[in-house]
Amino acid sequence: MSGFVLGIDIGGTGSRVAIAPFDANAASTTADGATADGVAAEPLGVLTGPGVSIGAEGSNAPQQIRRLVVAAKEAWPDHVESIRGVGIGATGIASLSADVGELARSLVVEAKAEAAVAIDALTAHLGALSGCGGAVTVLGTGAIAIAHPGPDPQGMLLPKWRRVDGWGHLFGDRGGGAWVGRQALEAALKCHDGVDDRGAGLLEAARQRFGEPGTWPAQFYTRSDRAGLLAEFAVDVAGRAGAGDPVASALLAEAGREAARSAIAAGGQGVDAASRVTLSGGLRRAGESLVEAFRAEALRLRPGAAVVEPAGDPLSGALTLANLVGQRRLRPQPGVLWV
């Protein structure tokens, strides 16, 4: 069966939609011999858009998703009648959107194709591990870990997803960009208050980005996208770490350790999904101290784990999700995946 699939990745600071050929019998084999069905082809085109914002009504992710579907139809008009599956991964979709199941059903009508909506960790997992089993922590604006044992012998992804964290920047997201930014600003303010002068470099960086400390509360507390604003400062933290700032380096290392703890916890004792562990997301590029700390902590907690490099990103995972839903190889799971 010919046709195309749409993959949509909705994050805290940006969003993307891609189109790729649909393959009714796609399969891939990883370097260690594990096979996963449904892996999508490389995208033919990609469009970008803004990230989500959180307000009194919750997340605007559903509106962003619909805008991207419309943009895709306008950008690729020759392909819209041949869409076989739509796969969506969105940050905060489970806890901040009213009825995700209804959103998935409405997209079937709007896109005239099978549709699946998932938390962003699931599409990051599919991208990072090529649809195979294991545990993944995603460090972007937020942080979430997820594990799955992989497809069954018939190639079905059963509802065995197990997630850890993803509680948002107020309650969790340990190790994510907003967490790093917030920890760094706390260190900067301790220096400003004369409590601990080790944060002098971070105070200087924060002043360059946000101005004088007295203005910071008004900049952050009044904004619906404060998590993204905090995560932007993580870029400066990475820069300070690269310049040798010990406080910035220590913050990134602790972010890596937090990410590893979440991944191993997601694998759990009963899932046995932590034999293959990886770190995904934009914050992975923050520096070697973060990645090495992740590896070391994962191996300390699970000595037999294989800490691997991610094969792909969340957008490739969204395309894989679209391919799987087009193949009807998915089973929904409350709070994680809606089909």
Automatic annotation (TrEMBL):
It holds the Pfam family BcrAD_BadFG. It comes from the Bacteria. GO terms for molecular function: N-acetylglucosamine kinase activity. InterPro entries: ATPase_BadF, ATPase_NBD, Euk-type_GlcNAc_Kinase. The keyword Zinc-finger does not apply. SUPFAM superfamilies: Actin-like ATPase domain. Keywords: Kinase, Transferase. Residues 6-320 form the ATPase BadF/BadG/BcrA/BcrD type domain. Its EC number is 2.7.1.59. PANTHER family: N-ACETYL-D-GLUCOSAMINE KINASE. This is BadF-type ATPase. It comes from Brevibacterium aurantiacum.
